[in-house]
Amino acid sequence: MRSRITGSAVARYAIALPLFVAAVFGGVSGCFSRPLPTESIPIPIKPNPTPAPVPDTVEAIPTDAAPPGPSIGVGPPVRVALRVARDTAALRATGPWRLLDARGGVLVRSRANERWHIERRAARTRAVRDDGAATPWTNGTVLQFPDDAGTVQSAGKNYRGALGFVATDTGILVVNHLPLEDYLRGVVPLEIGERGPGERAAVEAQAVAARSFTVIRLLNSKAGVGRSPDFDLISSVGDQVYGGQSAERPVADEAVRVTAGLVLMTAGKVVNAPFFSACGGETAAAEEVWRTDGEAHLRRVSDKIPGTDRHYCDIAPRFAWTRSFSGAELDAAVRKYLASVVEVGRSGPGQVTDLHIERRTPSGRVGQLIVRTSRGSYIVRGNDARSVLRSPSGELLNSSYFSVSVERSGDKLMRAVLRGNGYGNGVGMCQWGAIGRARAGQDLRSILRTYYPGTTLAQLPPSLLTP
Q1: Which of 76, 268, 363, 382 could form a disulfide with 284 if both were Cys (CB 3.0 to 4.6 A apart)?
Q2: Are strands 77-85 and 233-234 parallel, antiparallel or unpaired?
């Protein structure tokens, strides 16, 4: 059942508003130049190293039922970059709302049927009503809060919490500010899909993994090495897919509620908990895929069902797949994408003459792919091959777990066929594997112990993310 904000909850929310605003405001920053879905301009992000969280020893929760945690709608504040609007951004809500400046002063009090929008001039913004009435120009983030139990709206979707608007070099950055648990309600159903009652354990595992992933991003922001001074995460697969209140579903809401506050930890520290769609038979250690020395809880895990020739994730639509390229399609993909992962001369890579798998990783994924062309040979790391061998529509290759066969006419490559398994990077929790395990009767803890070996479930230490 979805929760409602009661009158007393509204009062508590109003009391906490100044603290919430102070906690989530950041400075104005940067140039946002890469494209984002829906309007416009995407949100560039810098590399996001994972600093060591503040040590805070917490006793691990054993195999008994999880103790009650915080209710839905609480937790540390999260800032999610939604989009960059080019010139103006509408101010919409399901009920009355108010707009605050960076110091917490009220700029606008509006009824739901009034039409306002944000516009920018250099690093400043102002709100303008359809009849021409306007607020003064202001620096810094302006924040739109719904009154009562309403939600704010952006690009046709409803969002809990507040919407922040930041002037950037290329447009107006729209950021959703809300508590952690409410954020997860808009993540879990989009990441693992709408699941049935017999798959609840997988949805609960997804909630814990997504919460742990988010906390690491918040710790990065706290340490000054996050995505941006203005946001902690983006709302797409670059972090976690997030759809706001419009994406919420009852089974996912319940999974977030029953796991509220629970994260994965080792030695008193929250750990990064990546996940992906389907492993195709075996997950990969972190160092097989990413430029890292590895993490002890991110190692190879077999997804094979004991005593059978099947795998828990073989129910996935892309457990096994085939992708074919004509010579012209392969040339076009390499010409467009190869330079993003290896150095290519000004004259371009030339025509592809061969694809050769030079090395495989311990889990069987491609470690090195040799792309031979009329102008030389290029060594591509296995996971980078997914970025190079895109479909004509630009879709990434499903995984780096593949084999290659080529057809030639003389010296000319006519066709390349890739046959592979799985979908995603392969590190951490296999989502379809978790669904298969839940259907087989495994519980939350069993699933998490399998995909994140050596971790324990524990409540997020309250002191970890306080300023």
Answers
A1: 363
A2: parallel
Cα(173)–Cα(159) distance, rounded to whole angstroms? Answer: 15
442-446 own/partner pairs: CB under 8 Å, 24+ apart = 442/201, 443/201, 444/201, 444/204, 444/205, 444/208, 444/259, 445/63, 446/201
Query: Per DSSP, which regions of 186-283 are E strands?
Result: 233-234, 262-266, 269-270, 275-276
Nearest one of 375, 374, 371, 376 to 387, comparing CA atoms? 371
Residues 6+ apart with CB under 8 A from 419: 320, 321, 322, 402, 403, 405
- pLDDT at 149 (0 to 100): 81
Token pair for 248: 């919420």
> Looking at this protein, which amino acid is placed at residue 355?
L
What is the mean predicted confidence (pLDDT) over 53-82? 50
- Residue 267 corresponds to which tokens in the numbers above? 């030695």
User: How far is Cα 272 from Cα 78, in angstroms, rounded to an integer?
Assistant: 17
What lies within 8 Å, CB to CB, of 412 at 6+ separation is: 327, 351, 353
Maximum Cα–Cα distance for the chain, whole Å? 78
Token look-up 């709608």 returns 73
Write out the H or E segment, with its range, that includes residue 22: helix 7-24
Helices (H) and strands (E) in the chain, counts: 10, 24
Question: In sequence order, which residues have a C-beta less than 8 Å from that of residue 285 and are 6 or more positions away?
Answer: 294, 298, 299, 300, 361, 362, 363, 427
* Pair 32, 84: CB distance under 8 Å: yes
Residues with Cβ within 8 Å of residue 153, at least 6 apart in sequence: 90, 92, 93, 94, 159
pTM of the entire predicted model? 0.83
41-51: per-residue pLDDT in tens?
455 555 444 43
pLDDT of residue 16: 41
Question: What b/e sequence results for 327-352 when a residue is b if at least 16 CB atoms lie within 10 Å of its CB, and e otherwise?
Answer: bebbbebbbebbeebeebeeeebbbb
Would you call 72 helix, strand, or coil by DSSP? coil
Q: What is residue 315's DSSP assignment?
A: T
Cβ neighbours of residue 128 closer than 8 Å, sequence gap 6 or more: 116, 117, 118, 119, 134, 135
Amino acid letter, residue 230: D
| Region 314-322 average pLDDT | 97
Distance, CA of 393 to chain centre = 22
